[in-house]
Amino acid sequence: MKADSVFPNSSDLSSVHWSPPESGVVKINSNGVFSNERCHAAIGVVCRDHNGFFRWGYVDKMKSISAFMTEALAMQRAMLLAVDIGLDKAIF
């Protein structure tokens, strides 16, 4: 995988922004970072309501074998968090 396919250039970042979900829905964002040299990884999950207020979150560090696996683990944790806290209306 080429580095430019993983890391967006600065002009791409200017158009990235968070948009709120509709009222009564929680928006869940997840992310993972991976260090190839030591196979270390970290994941994070943030849950926000329609006003943009932080409601729940999760962070963890772990071993992983790839950036793809780390992102998948972050998404898995986001879905498990939604189940654990009993969310019935969430978007990812």
From TrEMBL:
Regions of compositional bias (Polar residues) in chain numbering: 7-17
UniProt GO MF annotations: nucleic acid binding; RNA-DNA hybrid ribonuclease activity
Pfam families, sorted: RVT_3
Segments of this protein annotated with the region Disordered: 1-20
Domain of life from the UniProt record: Eukaryota
Residue ranges constituting the RNase H type-1 domain according to the UniProt record: 29-91
Entry protein name: RNase H type-1 domain-containing protein
